[in-house]
Protein backbone atom coordinates (compact mmCIF):
# COMPACT_ATOMS: atom_id res chain seq x y z
CA UNK A 1 0.00 0.00 0.00
CA UNK A 2 1.38 3.39 -0.93
CA UNK A 3 1.24 6.17 1.65
CA UNK A 4 -1.75 8.44 1.44
CA UNK A 5 -3.99 5.92 -0.25
CA UNK A 6 -7.35 4.99 1.20
CA UNK A 7 -8.90 1.98 -0.47
CA UNK A 8 -10.09 -1.53 0.19
CA UNK A 9 -8.26 -4.67 -0.87
CA UNK A 10 -9.35 -8.13 -1.91
CA UNK A 11 -7.32 -11.18 -0.84
CA UNK A 12 -8.76 -14.55 -1.84
CA UNK A 13 -7.69 -17.87 -0.33
CA UNK A 14 -10.00 -20.85 -0.50
CA UNK A 15 -8.18 -24.19 -0.24
CA UNK A 16 -8.01 -26.49 2.76
CA UNK A 17 -4.25 -27.13 3.09
CA UNK A 18 -2.74 -30.17 4.78
CA UNK A 19 1.02 -29.78 5.13
CA UNK A 20 3.85 -31.99 6.33
CA UNK A 21 5.65 -35.29 5.97
CA UNK A 22 3.25 -38.21 5.67
CA UNK A 23 0.24 -35.98 5.01
CA UNK A 24 -0.72 -38.10 1.99
CA UNK A 25 -2.36 -40.44 4.53
CA UNK A 26 -5.13 -37.82 4.79
CA UNK A 27 -6.25 -38.43 1.20
CA UNK A 28 -8.81 -41.20 1.88
CA UNK A 29 -10.52 -39.05 4.49
CA UNK A 30 -10.74 -36.08 2.10
CA UNK A 31 -12.28 -38.24 -0.62
CA UNK A 32 -14.85 -39.54 1.85
CA UNK A 33 -15.52 -36.03 3.17
CA UNK A 34 -16.58 -34.97 -0.32
CA UNK A 35 -18.67 -38.13 -0.74
CA UNK A 36 -16.90 -39.03 -3.98
CA UNK A 37 -17.77 -42.40 -5.47
CA UNK A 38 -15.67 -42.09 -8.64
CA UNK A 39 -12.49 -40.07 -9.13
CA UNK A 40 -10.14 -39.22 -11.95
CA UNK A 41 -6.48 -39.43 -10.89
CA UNK A 42 -4.33 -37.15 -13.08
CA UNK A 43 -0.55 -37.46 -13.41
CA UNK A 44 2.32 -37.67 -15.89
CA UNK A 45 4.97 -40.23 -16.74
CA UNK A 46 7.53 -38.77 -14.35
CA UNK A 47 5.20 -39.15 -11.37
CA UNK A 48 4.51 -42.73 -12.44
CA UNK A 49 8.22 -43.52 -12.85
CA UNK A 50 9.01 -42.09 -9.41
CA UNK A 51 6.53 -44.49 -7.78
CA UNK A 52 4.39 -41.64 -6.49
CA UNK A 53 1.36 -42.48 -8.66
CA UNK A 54 1.12 -45.95 -7.14
CA UNK A 55 1.15 -44.49 -3.63
CA UNK A 56 -1.67 -42.12 -4.52
CA UNK A 57 -3.76 -44.84 -6.16
CA UNK A 58 -3.31 -47.00 -3.03
CA UNK A 59 -4.72 -44.14 -0.94
CA UNK A 60 -7.63 -43.70 -3.35
CA UNK A 61 -8.39 -47.42 -3.07
CA UNK A 62 -8.32 -47.10 0.73
CA UNK A 63 -11.10 -44.50 0.48
CA UNK A 64 -13.39 -47.07 -1.12
CA UNK A 65 -13.95 -44.90 -4.20
CA UNK A 66 -13.75 -46.17 -7.75
CA UNK A 67 -11.27 -44.39 -10.00
CA UNK A 68 -10.05 -43.85 -13.55
CA UNK A 69 -6.52 -42.76 -14.46
CA UNK A 70 -5.43 -40.09 -16.92
CA UNK A 71 -1.65 -40.26 -17.26
CA UNK A 72 -1.28 -38.38 -20.55
CA UNK A 73 -0.22 -35.07 -19.00
CA UNK A 74 2.47 -33.24 -21.01
CA UNK A 75 4.61 -30.23 -20.07
CA UNK A 76 2.78 -27.02 -20.98
CA UNK A 77 -0.56 -28.84 -21.50
CA UNK A 78 -2.46 -28.05 -24.70
CA UNK A 79 -6.14 -27.54 -25.46
CA UNK A 80 -6.15 -30.93 -27.22
CA UNK A 81 -4.89 -32.80 -24.14
CA UNK A 82 -7.48 -31.01 -22.00
CA UNK A 83 -10.25 -32.06 -24.39
CA UNK A 84 -8.94 -35.65 -24.42
CA UNK A 85 -8.92 -35.86 -20.62
CA UNK A 86 -12.31 -34.14 -20.35
CA UNK A 87 -13.88 -36.66 -22.75
CA UNK A 88 -12.63 -39.51 -20.58
CA UNK A 89 -13.83 -37.82 -17.37
CA UNK A 90 -17.30 -37.28 -18.82
CA UNK A 91 -17.54 -40.82 -20.22
CA UNK A 92 -16.58 -42.22 -16.83
CA UNK A 93 -18.92 -39.82 -15.01
CA UNK A 94 -16.29 -38.89 -12.44
CA UNK A 95 -17.39 -36.81 -9.46
CA UNK A 96 -14.04 -35.27 -8.59
CA UNK A 97 -10.30 -35.19 -9.26
CA UNK A 98 -7.00 -35.98 -7.59
CA UNK A 99 -4.19 -34.18 -9.44
CA UNK A 100 -0.66 -35.35 -8.67
CA UNK A 101 2.49 -33.68 -9.95
CA UNK A 102 3.82 -30.29 -10.91
CA UNK A 103 1.99 -27.36 -12.42
CA UNK A 104 1.20 -29.16 -15.67
CA UNK A 105 -0.79 -31.95 -13.99
CA UNK A 106 -2.64 -29.61 -11.65
CA UNK A 107 -3.35 -27.02 -14.36
CA UNK A 108 -4.69 -29.76 -16.63
CA UNK A 109 -6.99 -31.08 -13.90
CA UNK A 110 -8.29 -27.56 -13.23
CA UNK A 111 -9.04 -27.09 -16.92
CA UNK A 112 -10.80 -30.45 -17.23
CA UNK A 113 -12.80 -29.60 -14.13
CA UNK A 114 -14.05 -26.41 -15.82
CA UNK A 115 -15.44 -28.48 -18.70
CA UNK A 116 -17.28 -30.86 -16.37
CA UNK A 117 -19.78 -28.18 -15.36
CA UNK A 118 -19.38 -25.51 -18.06
CA UNK A 119 -20.23 -25.86 -21.77
CA UNK A 120 -17.99 -25.34 -24.78
CA UNK A 121 -14.23 -25.63 -25.12
CA UNK A 122 -11.55 -24.67 -22.63
CA UNK A 123 -10.30 -21.77 -24.77
CA UNK A 124 -13.73 -20.15 -24.28
CA UNK A 125 -12.70 -19.49 -20.68
CA UNK A 126 -9.37 -17.74 -21.31
CA UNK A 127 -8.94 -14.52 -19.37
CA UNK A 128 -10.30 -13.47 -16.00
CA UNK A 129 -13.59 -14.50 -14.42
CA UNK A 130 -15.16 -16.29 -17.39
CA UNK A 131 -16.17 -19.52 -15.59
CA UNK A 132 -19.91 -19.46 -14.87
CA UNK A 133 -20.60 -22.58 -12.80
CA UNK A 134 -19.01 -24.08 -9.70
CA UNK A 135 -16.64 -27.00 -10.27
CA UNK A 136 -16.30 -30.50 -8.84
CA UNK A 137 -14.03 -31.22 -5.86
CA UNK A 138 -10.33 -31.19 -6.79
CA UNK A 139 -7.63 -32.48 -4.45
CA UNK A 140 -4.15 -31.30 -5.48
CA UNK A 141 -1.01 -33.20 -4.45
CA UNK A 142 2.05 -31.23 -5.63
CA UNK A 143 5.33 -33.05 -6.27
CA UNK A 144 7.35 -29.93 -7.06
CA UNK A 145 7.98 -26.66 -5.23
CA UNK A 146 7.58 -24.07 -7.92
CA UNK A 147 4.33 -23.27 -9.68
CA UNK A 148 2.03 -22.86 -6.64
CA UNK A 149 -0.71 -24.17 -8.96
CA UNK A 150 -2.03 -26.21 -6.05
CA UNK A 151 -3.36 -23.08 -4.34
CA UNK A 152 -3.87 -20.58 -7.16
CA UNK A 153 -6.90 -19.68 -9.25
CA UNK A 154 -4.97 -20.07 -12.52
CA UNK A 155 -4.65 -22.74 -15.22
CA UNK A 156 -1.94 -22.06 -17.83
CA UNK A 157 -2.43 -23.77 -21.20
CA UNK A 158 -1.09 -23.79 -24.76
CA UNK A 159 -3.32 -23.04 -27.73
CA UNK A 160 -1.43 -24.88 -30.49
CA UNK A 161 -3.51 -23.32 -33.26
CA UNK A 162 -2.79 -19.75 -32.19
CA UNK A 163 0.68 -20.75 -30.88
CA UNK A 164 0.15 -18.91 -27.62
CA UNK A 165 0.25 -19.73 -23.94
CA UNK A 166 -2.83 -18.37 -22.22
CA UNK A 167 -4.40 -18.50 -18.78
CA UNK A 168 -7.80 -19.25 -17.36
CA UNK A 169 -8.10 -17.21 -14.17
CA UNK A 170 -11.14 -17.68 -11.96
CA UNK A 171 -11.62 -18.22 -8.23
CA UNK A 172 -13.73 -21.27 -9.03
CA UNK A 173 -10.58 -23.07 -10.24
CA UNK A 174 -8.94 -23.21 -6.83
CA UNK A 175 -8.43 -26.74 -5.51
CA UNK A 176 -10.83 -27.76 -2.75
CA UNK A 177 -8.01 -29.43 -0.81
CA UNK A 178 -4.21 -29.48 -1.02
CA UNK A 179 -1.93 -32.17 0.36
CA UNK A 180 1.63 -30.87 0.61
CA UNK A 181 3.84 -33.83 1.48
CA UNK A 182 7.52 -32.83 1.07
CA UNK A 183 8.45 -36.51 0.66
CA UNK A 184 7.00 -36.32 -2.85
CA UNK A 185 9.58 -33.72 -3.87
CA UNK A 186 12.49 -35.97 -2.90
CA UNK A 187 12.66 -37.63 -6.34
CA UNK A 188 12.86 -34.39 -8.32
CA UNK A 189 15.98 -34.25 -10.53
CA UNK A 190 18.48 -31.49 -9.73
CA UNK A 191 17.62 -29.50 -12.86
CA UNK A 192 13.88 -29.63 -12.09
CA UNK A 193 14.46 -28.61 -8.47
CA UNK A 194 16.46 -25.61 -9.70
CA UNK A 195 14.06 -24.53 -12.45
CA UNK A 196 10.86 -24.95 -10.42
CA UNK A 197 12.48 -23.19 -7.46
CA UNK A 198 13.42 -20.25 -9.67
CA UNK A 199 9.83 -20.20 -10.94
CA UNK A 200 8.66 -19.75 -7.34
CA UNK A 201 11.21 -16.96 -6.80
CA UNK A 202 9.95 -15.30 -9.98
CA UNK A 203 6.42 -15.42 -8.56
CA UNK A 204 7.61 -13.79 -5.34
CA UNK A 205 9.49 -10.89 -6.92
CA UNK A 206 7.02 -10.21 -9.74
CA UNK A 207 4.02 -10.18 -7.42
CA UNK A 208 5.82 -7.89 -4.94
CA UNK A 209 6.40 -5.23 -7.59
CA UNK A 210 3.08 -5.77 -9.41
CA UNK A 211 0.92 -2.68 -9.76
CA UNK A 212 -1.88 -4.79 -8.22
CA UNK A 213 0.13 -5.50 -5.04
CA UNK A 214 -1.32 -4.50 -1.68
CA UNK A 215 -0.22 -4.97 1.95
CA UNK A 216 -1.75 -8.44 2.15
CA UNK A 217 -0.01 -9.70 -0.99
CA UNK A 218 3.26 -7.89 -0.28
CA UNK A 219 3.68 -9.61 3.07
CA UNK A 220 3.30 -13.06 1.51
CA UNK A 221 5.53 -12.25 -1.46
CA UNK A 222 8.37 -11.04 0.78
CA UNK A 223 8.07 -13.93 3.22
CA UNK A 224 7.99 -16.40 0.36
CA UNK A 225 11.06 -14.82 -1.26
CA UNK A 226 13.02 -15.01 1.99
CA UNK A 227 12.24 -18.70 2.50
CA UNK A 228 12.84 -19.68 -1.14
CA UNK A 229 16.11 -17.77 -1.54
CA UNK A 230 17.59 -19.34 1.60
CA UNK A 231 16.55 -22.89 0.82
CA UNK A 232 16.74 -23.38 -2.95
CA UNK A 233 20.55 -23.73 -3.09
CA UNK A 234 20.37 -26.30 -0.26
CA UNK A 235 17.68 -28.34 -2.02
CA UNK A 236 19.67 -28.29 -5.27
CA UNK A 237 22.94 -29.22 -3.58
CA UNK A 238 21.42 -32.11 -1.64
CA UNK A 239 18.09 -33.49 -2.78
CA UNK A 240 17.90 -35.55 0.40
CA UNK A 241 17.89 -32.42 2.58
CA UNK A 242 14.26 -32.80 3.60
CA UNK A 243 14.26 -29.70 5.77
CA UNK A 244 15.17 -27.63 2.70
CA UNK A 245 12.60 -29.55 0.62
CA UNK A 246 9.90 -28.83 3.19
CA UNK A 247 10.85 -25.16 3.39
CA UNK A 248 10.72 -24.88 -0.40
CA UNK A 249 7.20 -26.31 -0.41
CA UNK A 250 6.20 -23.90 2.37
CA UNK A 251 7.73 -20.93 0.53
CA UNK A 252 5.92 -21.95 -2.62
CA UNK A 253 2.53 -21.93 -0.88
CA UNK A 254 3.11 -18.60 0.85
CA UNK A 255 4.27 -17.05 -2.42
CA UNK A 256 1.19 -18.46 -4.14
CA UNK A 257 -1.03 -16.56 -1.72
CA UNK A 258 0.68 -13.38 -2.87
CA UNK A 259 0.86 -13.81 -6.62
CA UNK A 260 -2.59 -15.33 -7.11
CA UNK A 261 -3.97 -12.05 -5.76
CA UNK A 262 -1.41 -9.54 -7.10
CA UNK A 263 -0.71 -11.14 -10.50
CA UNK A 264 2.63 -11.18 -12.32
CA UNK A 265 4.31 -9.14 -15.06
CA UNK A 266 6.80 -8.85 -17.92
CA UNK A 267 8.87 -11.85 -16.85
CA UNK A 268 5.91 -14.20 -17.21
CA UNK A 269 4.88 -12.53 -20.47
CA UNK A 270 8.29 -13.47 -21.91
CA UNK A 271 8.26 -16.95 -20.35
CA UNK A 272 4.80 -17.74 -21.74
CA UNK A 273 5.97 -16.80 -25.23
CA UNK A 274 9.15 -18.87 -24.99
CA UNK A 275 7.11 -21.89 -23.85
CA UNK A 276 4.45 -21.47 -26.54
CA UNK A 277 6.86 -21.15 -29.46
CA UNK A 278 9.82 -23.26 -28.38
CA UNK A 279 8.50 -25.61 -25.71
CA UNK A 280 10.75 -24.31 -22.93
CA UNK A 281 9.82 -25.63 -19.51
CA UNK A 282 8.01 -22.85 -17.65
CA UNK A 283 10.46 -22.61 -14.74
CA UNK A 284 13.49 -22.51 -17.01
CA UNK A 285 11.85 -19.91 -19.27
CA UNK A 286 11.25 -17.67 -16.25
CA UNK A 287 14.67 -18.20 -14.69
CA UNK A 288 16.81 -17.38 -17.71
CA UNK A 289 15.35 -13.88 -18.16
CA UNK A 290 14.56 -13.01 -14.52
CA UNK A 291 17.71 -11.03 -13.59
CA UNK A 292 17.41 -8.88 -16.70
CA UNK A 293 13.69 -8.18 -16.30
CA UNK A 294 14.30 -7.11 -12.69
CA UNK A 295 17.06 -4.76 -13.83
CA UNK A 296 14.71 -3.36 -16.49
CA UNK A 297 11.92 -2.80 -13.94
CA UNK A 298 14.17 -1.29 -11.27
CA UNK A 299 13.69 2.33 -12.32
CA UNK A 300 9.92 1.99 -11.86
CA UNK A 301 10.13 0.68 -8.28
CA UNK A 302 13.63 1.25 -6.84
CA UNK A 303 12.48 1.24 -3.21
CA UNK A 304 10.82 -2.15 -3.62
CA UNK A 305 13.94 -3.54 -5.27
CA UNK A 306 15.97 -2.43 -2.25
CA UNK A 307 13.39 -3.93 0.13
CA UNK A 308 13.68 -7.29 -1.63
CA UNK A 309 17.46 -7.16 -1.60
CA UNK A 310 17.38 -6.46 2.14
CA UNK A 311 14.97 -9.38 2.63
CA UNK A 312 17.51 -11.81 1.12
CA UNK A 313 20.30 -10.41 3.26
CA UNK A 314 21.95 -7.81 1.01
CA UNK A 315 22.52 -4.55 2.87
CA UNK A 316 21.93 -1.37 0.85
CA UNK A 317 24.78 1.13 0.52
CA UNK A 318 22.56 4.21 0.59
CA UNK A 319 23.21 4.95 -3.08
CA UNK A 320 19.83 4.29 -4.70
CA UNK A 321 21.31 4.46 -8.21
CA UNK A 322 23.29 1.32 -7.39
CA UNK A 323 21.11 -0.26 -4.72
CA UNK A 324 18.11 -0.65 -7.04
CA UNK A 325 20.14 -3.26 -8.95
CA UNK A 326 21.29 -5.31 -5.94
CA UNK A 327 18.41 -7.74 -6.34
CA UNK A 328 18.91 -8.31 -10.06
CA UNK A 329 22.63 -8.88 -9.46
CA UNK A 330 21.91 -11.43 -6.72
CA UNK A 331 19.42 -13.23 -8.95
CA UNK A 332 21.96 -13.38 -11.78
CA UNK A 333 24.50 -14.90 -9.42
CA UNK A 334 21.94 -17.47 -8.24
CA UNK A 335 20.96 -18.50 -11.78
CA UNK A 336 24.63 -19.09 -12.57
CA UNK A 337 25.20 -21.15 -9.43
CA UNK A 338 22.13 -23.25 -10.24
CA UNK A 339 23.30 -23.77 -13.86
CA UNK A 340 20.21 -22.18 -15.37
CA UNK A 341 20.77 -22.36 -19.12
CA UNK A 342 20.95 -19.23 -21.27
CA UNK A 343 18.66 -18.77 -24.26
CA UNK A 344 21.44 -19.78 -26.64
CA UNK A 345 22.02 -22.95 -24.62
CA UNK A 346 18.32 -23.71 -25.05
CA UNK A 347 18.59 -23.37 -28.84
CA UNK A 348 16.78 -20.06 -29.13
CA UNK A 349 18.07 -18.11 -32.15
CA UNK A 350 18.64 -14.38 -32.35
CA UNK A 351 16.63 -14.26 -35.57
CA UNK A 352 13.57 -15.25 -33.50
CA UNK A 353 13.86 -12.30 -31.12
CA UNK A 354 11.78 -9.90 -33.23
CA UNK A 355 8.91 -12.39 -33.52
CA UNK A 356 9.10 -13.29 -29.82
CA UNK A 357 9.13 -9.65 -28.74
CA UNK A 358 6.05 -8.90 -30.84
CA UNK A 359 4.21 -11.82 -29.24
CA UNK A 360 5.25 -10.73 -25.72
CA UNK A 361 3.52 -7.38 -26.22
CA UNK A 362 0.19 -9.22 -26.60
CA UNK A 363 0.50 -10.94 -23.20
CA UNK A 364 -2.03 -10.18 -20.43
CA UNK A 365 0.54 -10.08 -17.55
CA UNK A 366 2.07 -6.92 -19.05
CA UNK A 367 -0.80 -4.87 -17.65
CA UNK A 368 0.39 -5.68 -14.11
CA UNK A 369 4.06 -4.83 -14.73
CA UNK A 370 5.33 -1.86 -12.67
CA UNK A 371 7.13 -0.35 -15.67
CA UNK A 372 4.53 0.38 -18.29
CA UNK A 373 4.99 1.30 -21.95
CA UNK A 374 7.17 -1.73 -22.68
CA UNK A 375 8.30 -1.69 -26.33
CA UNK A 376 9.43 -4.39 -28.72
CA UNK A 377 12.95 -2.94 -28.50
CA UNK A 378 12.83 -3.25 -24.68
CA UNK A 379 11.97 -6.94 -24.93
CA UNK A 380 14.63 -7.59 -27.57
CA UNK A 381 17.16 -5.92 -25.27
CA UNK A 382 16.22 -8.28 -22.43
CA UNK A 383 16.42 -11.31 -24.73
CA UNK A 384 19.86 -10.18 -25.92
CA UNK A 385 21.13 -10.02 -22.33
CA UNK A 386 19.68 -13.48 -21.61
CA UNK A 387 21.25 -14.94 -24.74
Please outline what is shown here:
This protein has 15 helices and 9 strands. The chain has 387 residues and is of the alpha/beta class. The longest helix is centred in the middle third of the chain and has 23 residues.
What order do the helices and strands come in, and which of them pair?
Layout: E1 16-19, H1 27-33, E2 38-42, H2 45-49, H3 52-63, E3 66-70, H4 79-92, E4 96-101, H5 103-117, E5 127-128, E6 138-142, E7 154-159, E8 164-169, E9 177-180, H6 190-209, H7 215-237, H8 242-262, H9 266-278, H10 282-297, H11 302-311, H12 320-323, H13 326-337, H14 353-360, H15 376-386
Parallel strand pairs: 1-9, 2-3, 2-4, 4-6, 5-8, 6-9
Antiparallel strand pairs: 7-8
What's the CATH H-level superfamily name of the largest domain? Dehydroquinate synthase-like - alpha domain
What CATH calls the topology of the largest domain is Dehydroquinate synthase-like, alpha domain
Rg over CA atoms: 20 Å
The appropriate CATH architecture of the largest domain is Up-down Bundle
Shape: globular
Summarize the amount of helix as a percent range.
40-55%
Largest sheet: 6 strands, parallel
Task: Give the CATH level 1 class of the largest domain.
Answer: Mainly Alpha
What is the mean pLDDT?
A: 95
**Domains, number:** 2
Helical run tally: 15
Structural class: alpha/beta
Order of helices and strands, N to C?
Answer: EHEHHEHEHEEEEEHHHHHHHHHH
Strand order of the largest sheet: 1-9-6-4-2-3
Number of strands: 9
Residue stretches low in confidence (pLDDT < 50, at least 5 long) are: none
Task: List the quaternary state of the chains.
Answer: single chain
Beta-strand content bin: 5-15%
Amino acid sequence: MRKGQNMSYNFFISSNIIFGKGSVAELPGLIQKHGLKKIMVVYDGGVKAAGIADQIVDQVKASGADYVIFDGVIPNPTNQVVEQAAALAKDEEVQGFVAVGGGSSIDLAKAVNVLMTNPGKIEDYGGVGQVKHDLLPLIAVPTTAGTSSEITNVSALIDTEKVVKYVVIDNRLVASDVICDPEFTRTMPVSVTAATGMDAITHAVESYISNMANPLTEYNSLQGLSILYRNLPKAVENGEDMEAREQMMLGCIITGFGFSNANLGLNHAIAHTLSAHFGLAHGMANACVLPYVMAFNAEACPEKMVEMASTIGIAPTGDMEKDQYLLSEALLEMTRKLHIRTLSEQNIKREDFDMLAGEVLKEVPLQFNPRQGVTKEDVIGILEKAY
